[in-house]
Amino acid sequence: MASDNTEEYDKEMLEKKHAERLERLALINKSRLEEASIRKSQAAETSDPRESVDVFLSAFTQRKESVEKELASALEKKNALEQTLIKEHLDSLALELSAMEKLVADASYFLPAYDVRSSQTAVLKLKDELATASAELIPKKKFSFRSKAAKKQPIPTTAADSTTGEIKDEKQNNGGVSSPSTSPVSKEDSMAVQESNNRERIQGKQNSVFVRDSDVLGAELTLSHLKNCRVYLRGRLTTFYIHGLRNCQIFAGPVTGSVFIDDVEGSTLVLASHQIRIHSTKATDFYLRVRSRPIVEYTTNVRFAPYAFSYPGMQEDLVAANLAEETGLWEKVDDFRWLRAVQSPNWTSLPLKERIPVEDGSSVQGLGCDGL
Amino acid sequence: MGLLTIIRKVKRKEKEMRILMVGLDNAGKTTIVKRINGEDTSRISPTLGFNIKTMQFKRYRLNIWDVGGQKTLRSYWRNYYEQTDGLVWVVDSSDTRRLQDCRDELHGLLKEEKLIGASLLIFANKQDLKGSLNPEEIAKVLDLHVMDKDRHWQILGCSAVTGEGLLDGFNWLVSDIGSRIYMLG
User: Fold this and answer.
1) Is A338 on the interface with B (CB under 8 A)?
2) Where, by residue number, does Mg(2+) bind (chain B) (predicted)?
3) Can you give the residue range of the structural domain that contains A212?
C-alpha cells in the first residue's frame, strides 16, 4: 500500500511540475509577443517615412507631373505672357528640377537601383524639355558689337624665378663655393668662354655668336644668362647645364651625360644627349637626339623635332657618344606636371613645315674661343 | 632542433634592409642603383615615380627604393619614409647652382620623424667630372656639421659612371644598419 501511495504522490508531483512549466512557458511567450509588438510599433514610429520607397515614388511622380504640366501650359500660351514673366516661370521650374535631382540623390541609398536610374532619367528628360522650351520661348539676343575690356597683362612668373635664381647664385659666391671670376653683368667684351672652377662657362652675354671647338674629352659646359646669342658647340661634352636663356639659338654636339635646362624662353636648342631635362621653359623649340625619354616640368608651349646640326667629324662624335642611331625618343616626352593618358597641352611635336633645316656649323666664326 | 630551425628561418627573413634613395633630379640616383646591380646605365630616363630593386649584398637582402627627384615628385617622398633603415642622399657635385636647393631639401628630410633612426649616406656623385666639388666641399655647403649628434652618417665621393666609391658607400651603410639592428657589425 505504501508503495501505491508513494506512486500516486509522485504522479501528482509530476503533473504539478508539468503545469508549472507550461504556465511559465506561456508567460515567456506572452512577454515575448508583447516585446515584439512594442518593437514593431517603435520601429514604425522611428522609421523615417521618407525612407519608404512607395512614399518617395509617389511624391516624385507627383512633382514630375506638375512640372510637365507647367511646361506644357507655358508652351501653349507663349504669346499671351510677357517675356519677363515667362523667364521667371521657367527659372522656378529649373529650381524645382534641381530640387528633384537632389531628392533622388538623397533617396539613392535606400531606393532600389532600378528606381534610382528611372528617376534620374526622368529628371534629365525634364531638364532637356525645359531647355528646348526656354530656347523656344526666350529668343537669344541678337549679335551685336560691344567694346571689350582690355585684358590685363599677366605678370610674368619666370622673371621672379630668374631673379631668385640669381640671388641664390650670389649667395653661393659669397660662401666661396663656386666663384666665377667675373660677374655676369660686367666685362661684356672680355673673354667669353672661361674656365672657372674647372668648368667652362659662357655667361651674362648679349647679341653675340660663340663657337666652341673641342676634341678634349671630359669637357663640361654651362651656359647662363644669355640674350640674343647664337652658340655653336662642335665636339663632345660630358655634361651640359643651361639656364636663363632668352631668344638664343644653341647648336650642340653630342653630350655623353645629361643636359639640364632651366628657365629658357623664346629659344631654339639643338641637342644630342643621353638624358634631357627641361624645367620652367616657355615658347622654345627643341631638336633632339636622345637615348632616354626627355622630360619637361613647369614648362609650356615647347615643341620637339629630331636633331638638326652638323659639323665636320660629327658622325664620329655621335658614334663615340653612343648617339649615332635615331631612337625616335625626341617625341616621347614625359611631362611631370601632366600625369595623364591624354597628350599634355604643354608640348607638341613641331610640324614638318616649321622645322629649321639642318644647321651646318662647319664654317661658322664666332667669339670667345681663346683659352681653350 | 625544430625550434632552432624556426629561429634561424625567422632570422634569415629579418635580414632585410629597406633603403631609400633620394636627392634632387639629375643627381644620378637611378644610375647608381643600376651600376651596383650591373645593369646598362646608358638608357636611363628621368624617373617618373619610383623603382624598387631587390639585391643581395653581403648577408643582407637590400630593398632599394629609388624615388624620382623632380620638383613635382618631391612632395611624394614622404610616402616612402615608413620603416626606412638607410637613407642615401645623392648629390650632383657638379651642379653648384642648385647646391643650396639640395641643402634645403636634405635638411627638410632630416627633420622627418619617421627617418630619425635611419642611417644616412651622402654620395657626392659625379666625381669623374672636373667641375665637381669634392666631398669635403660638399659637406661644407650642405652644412653637414649641424647634423643631429645621434644620427649615423657618412659622406663619400663617388662616380656612378666609373663605379668608383659606390661599394665603399654601400659597405658602410649596410654594416652601420647591421650593427644597429642586428648587433652583428
Assistant:
1) no
2) 30, 47
3) 160-371
